[in-house]
């Protein structure tokens, strides 16, 4: 039963719970008007200690489209965080006012810490380089909807695999599906951490430094940004930032039914001339993000007692 749970890592939900969540997200997408007043009287606290466009707006839009309301901050310095208040005290206080809270934080583990002090469900909206479970829900729903199944795909992850929380979350979540092949494409300095690779059991892993060498084998290409904010050294960032740029030409050897995903924001790793290619699905992916967050909030607050 998902009602009342915290979502800190994607594996906090079983595969069966994920399937039910995705079914609900697609039902909402088909008939959004049926859900307009599901959460009348409920309040979401939106606690963003780090910048966001998609995650924050899609959560807030999700709550509003369900008839609920939103309080919170997008800039922690506008709250008592600026006076040194701890995450534990902030969440204890917010829980006096709201029914559910979503938290993004630059420090790994902050949402988990919050969950230990919280009587209301906490949703991790991204913690440092660790996990981004609702991006993973978004990604899995996109793959299930557009590829028909999550099982038995060759998935290419390209870019910053060292610091990228979206790829860490998605790879760990995909390891629960059958017969996956993981293709990791990165400069050696930004390779997938060993502890993630070690968690992949018997799934096949291919590691390369060059996308052109493997693009023809890939069913799902997951591009990521080289993240300036995670580098300690600006020179190193500048050297690596344009290592991969996906262009229309580079897609010429890719499968016709491959899909190109990206959690966004992008900088220059996907040239805008790729956007018109039907295989580019990253804005559709962003829209699935709102529907899956609507389904998640609804399930966490009401379980199966919804329309
Ligand atoms: N994909 C994602 O997390 O985007 P934002 O940082 O804009 O929320």
Can you write the helix and strand succession as a string? Answer: HEHEHEHEHEHEHEEHEH
The small molecules bound here are:
phosphoric acid mono(formamide)ester
Determine the mean pLDDT: 94
Shape: globular
Count of individual domains: 2
Question: What is the strand tally?
Answer: 9
User: Strands of the largest sheet, in order across it?
Assistant: 7-6-5-8-9
**Could you name the CATH homologous superfamily of the largest domain?**
Aspartate/ornithine carbamoyltransferase
Quick structural gist:
With 307 residues, the protein is of the alpha/beta class. Helix content is 33%, strand content 15%. The chain contains nine helices and nine strands.
């Amino acid at each position: 039963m998902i009602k009342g749970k915290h979502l800190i890592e994607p594996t906090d939900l079983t595969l069966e719970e994920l399937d039910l969540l995705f079914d609900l997200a697609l039902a909402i997408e088909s008939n959004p008007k049926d859900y307009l007043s599901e959460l009348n009287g409920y309040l979401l606290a939106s606690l963003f200690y780090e910048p966001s466009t998609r995650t924050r707006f899609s959560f807030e839009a999700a709550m509003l489209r369900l008839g609920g309301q939103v309080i919170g901050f997008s800039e922690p310095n506008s709250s008592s965080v600026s006076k040194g208040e701890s995450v534990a005290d902030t969440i204890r206080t917010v829980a006096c006012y709201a029914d559910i809270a979503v938290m993004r934080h630059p420090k790994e583990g902050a949402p988990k810490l919050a969950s230990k002090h919280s009587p209301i469900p906490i949703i991790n909206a991204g913690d440092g380089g660790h996990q981004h479970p609702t991006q993973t829900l978004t990604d899995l729903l996109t793959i299930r909807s557009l590829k028909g199944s999550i099982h038995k795909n060759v998935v290419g992850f390209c870019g910053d695999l060292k610091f990228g929380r979206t790829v860490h979350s998605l790879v760990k979540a995909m390891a629960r599906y059958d017969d996956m092949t993981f293709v990791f494409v990165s400069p050696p300095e930004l390779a997938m951490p060993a502890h993630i690779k070690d968690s992949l059991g018997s799934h096949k892993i291919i590691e390369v430094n060059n996308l052109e060498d493997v693009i023809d084998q890939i069913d799902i290409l997951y591009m990521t940004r080289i993240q300036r904010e995670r580098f300690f050294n600006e020179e190193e960032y500048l050297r690596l930032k344009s290592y991969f740029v996906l262009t229309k030409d580079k897609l010429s050897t890719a499968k016709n039914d491959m899909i190109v995903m990206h959690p966004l924001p992008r900088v220059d790793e996907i040239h805008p001339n790729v956007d018109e290619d039907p295989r580019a699905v990253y804005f559709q992916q962003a829209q699935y993000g709102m529907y899956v967050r609507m389904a998640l909030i609804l399930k966490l607050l009401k379980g199966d007692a919804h329309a």
